[in-house]
Amino acid sequence: MKIFSIILMITILSSCSVFEEDDIIQPIPIDSVFVNNTSNLTAEFIAKIYCGSYCWKNTYYEKSINGNNVFIKTFVISDGSSVCPAVCVEYQIPINIVLSVSGSYTFHFWKSDTSSIDTTIIVGE
User: Fold this and answer.
1) What percent of the chain has pLDDT over 90?
2) What's 51-70 look like in SS3?
3) How far apart are CA 43 and CA 23, in angstroms?
4) Secondary structure string (H, E, C) spanning the chain
5) Residue 70 near residue 97, CB atoms below 8 Å
6) What is the pTM of this model?
7) Residue 78, burial from CB neighbour count under 10 angstroms (0-12, 13-18, 19+)
8) Pick the residue with more confidence: 57 or 106?
9) What does the CA dihedral 44, 104, 100, 18 come to, rounded to 10 degrees?
10) Looking at the predicted structure, is the pLDDT value of residue 108 above 80?
11) pLDDT per residue over 109-119, tens digit each?
12) Are 8 and 91 in contact (CB under 8 A)?
């Protein structure tokens, strides 16, 4: 009976997904960035998007660090099965970056494949 329960549980969990079938994931450009706080080795930002959509279900970001350069790209998950009104909605995305070493860092927030919003701050000093 235990083996059957384990197999059933694994089957149910493996059929679940974080994203639904109709979800669309795409990068979204940042319009402006504000430094919210810097403490210890953490940099907290608020990234703003001025023309979002009511069909956006969630936003997230990915970061990559190369030396003292931190590259941040934001993404949106939207419902591809919904009809959305053509209305711009302002979104604020909190971005918290934890660094391993104090120093001066340049943060590059993705706007397009050829441009970014860049800001340099000192963290942890």
Assistant:
1) 58
2) EECCCEEEEEEEEEEECCEE
3) 31
4) CHHHHHHHHHHHHHHCCCCCCCEEEEEECCCEEEEEEEECCEEEEEEEEEEECCCEEEEEEEEEEECCEEEEEEEEEEECCCCCCCCCEEEEEEEEEECCCCEEEEEEEEEECCEEEEEEEEECC
5) yes
6) 0.78
7) buried
8) 106
9) 40
10) yes
11) 999 999 999 99
12) no
Tallying the residues shown for the chain, one arrives at 125
Q: Kindly state the tokens that stand for 116.
A: 């970014």
Question: CB count, 10 Å around CB of 23?
Answer: 15
Q: Beta strand pairing status for 103-112 and 69-79?
A: parallel
Q: What digits encode the pLDDT tens for the residues 90-99?
A: 999 999 999 9
